[in-house]
Amino acid sequence: MDPLDDVFAAMRVRSALYARLEARAPWGVSLAGGESARFGLVVRGSCLLEVPGVAQPVALAAGDCYVLAHGTPYVLRDHPDTPTVSCASVVRDRIGGVVDLGGTGTAASVICGWFHFDQRAARPLLDLLPVLLHVKMEQARAIALQGTLQLLAMETGEPGLGSGLLVSRLADIVFVQAVRAHAAAQGQAQTGWLGGLADARIGPALRAMHKDMARDWTVETLASAASLSRSAFAQRFREKVGQAPLEYLTHWRMFKAGNMLGQGHAAVGAIAGAVGYESEAAFSKAFKRRMGMAPGAWRAAARESVAA
């Protein structure tokens, strides 16, 4: 187990929508922003991707994948000078189908999609991700992604029974694999727990912590997992992760407890034990201090959010 496992398990992708653009130059389309994450795959041809906050247009080639986890608006087009039309005006009732776009020039096929997930559960990950995840076909880590993308291309090109459900599940996998490819490409240059996972010493301690959140961890036992002295571990952990070890542990215990409260029916006492608290009262006090409301109120709010 590691932080990515905990976040992905809690995100609960609720739905995924898509359209396949069959475009010929000149063509351009603008896609509005929103709460849902955006993703795309260039099946054939090439195009330019323009995203607010990214200085230059990004050249996309066949096999490239992109994810905008924050729901940022963006533009796709064949040339920087080509005018765009809004996605809403060309897609409309063709969600899940093929949209023809542009003129009679060079062809490009792009699958554009968006999916909804639990924003609160995804926050520990979203806070660490850049505005754009661009996975190039030639990246070593992208090889594992290609099989998923090929299935996605096939299901959107020739829809069959259950294609809508299958595309939703594939979109979930695309997001996970895109994050993994990004993490592998960035390595220790990353900040926060993603950077900690890439560190040869801190990574094992993080994985041990997340594998057994109920254990009575101390800085000494975590340092042992990292094969470091207590002081060296504490300093390195803060440098890599940005938090003290036990502060980090408390944060993730409350994160896990919040997800358990919102997604299940376990008693508060049982949840307290699962995240390392012997006393329900001590857990409730710590939870309210960290999350801003009592466990019962959190559970009620989470259920109202799902119902909405």
TrEMBL record:
<keyword id="KW-0805">Transcription regulation</keyword>
<feature type="domain" description="HTH araC/xylS-type">
    <location>
        <begin position="203"/>
        <end position="301"/>
    </location>
</feature>
<dbReference type="InterPro" id="IPR018060">
    <property type="entry name" value="HTH_AraC"/>
</dbReference>
<dbReference type="Pfam" id="PF12852">
    <property type="entry name" value="Cupin_6"/>
</dbReference>
<dbReference type="GO" id="GO:0003700">
    <property type="term" value="F:DNA-binding transcription factor activity"/>
</dbReference>
<dbReference type="InterPro" id="IPR032783">
    <property type="entry name" value="AraC_lig"/>
</dbReference>
<dbReference type="Pfam" id="PF12833">
    <property type="entry name" value="HTH_18"/>
</dbReference>
<dbReference type="InterPro" id="IPR050204">
    <property type="entry name" value="AraC_XylS_family_regulators"/>
</dbReference>
<keyword id="KW-0804">Transcription</keyword>
<dbReference type="GO" id="GO:0043565">
    <property type="term" value="F:sequence-specific DNA binding"/>
</dbReference>
<protein>
    <submittedName>
        <fullName>AraC-like DNA-binding protein</fullName>
    </submittedName>
</protein>
<dbReference type="InterPro" id="IPR009057">
    <property type="entry name" value="Homeodomain-like_sf"/>
</dbReference>
<keyword id="KW-0238">DNA-binding</keyword>
